[in-house]
Amino acid sequence: MPIDIRLERPDDIDRVYAIEAAAFGGDAHARLVDALRADDALILSHVAEINGDIVGHAAYSFVSVTDGDCARHFPALGPIGVDPRRQGRGIGSALVRAGLRALTEAEYELVFLVGSPRYYPRFGYQPAQPLGFTSDYVKPGGKHEHFMVALLQESFPDGVRGHVRFHPAFVEVD
User: Shortest CA distance to 43 belongs to which of 91, 108, 90, 139?
Assistant: First the structure.
């Protein structure tokens, strides 16, 4: 069955909430999407449809990368959820690819995420810490492979290193 990826519409919000809650076994990620939406912080919000039924969702918001007095902003993927009854059928992959395509077309240079180090490298994501990035999601001396970045342009942006802070809603919604 073909998977159609499109931008979220206002009438999708209840279904998006249900998918995120079901995908993560609780409503924390669904509330996070609602908080990002309420703060007008979603820079991209895709839904995946099969035969007109929404079966997946991916949200993108900005992170700030701070190095001393210099701060730059880049998109971050998350959360992304797929209806548990439809997982393992390429829906999440289709959402990730559509997001990377849209962000590349918008000429962003990097995109961050916190996620599975077994899943996301197939899309070009790699551990961010060895590239000079830190995050509150990585404890000093702790595992860092889940904190990742993907390069969206042909070369790594000059001088971009530092501490990556996600939108405050990521901390507020727990």
Answer: 108
| pLDDT score of 76 more than 70 | yes
Q: Which domain holds residue 19?
A: 4-172
Whole-model pTM over 0.90: yes
pLDDT band at 101 (very low <50, low <70, confident <90, very high): very high
Q: Work out how many domains the chain is built from and give that number.
A: 1
CATH number of the domain that residue 115 is part of = 3.40.630.30
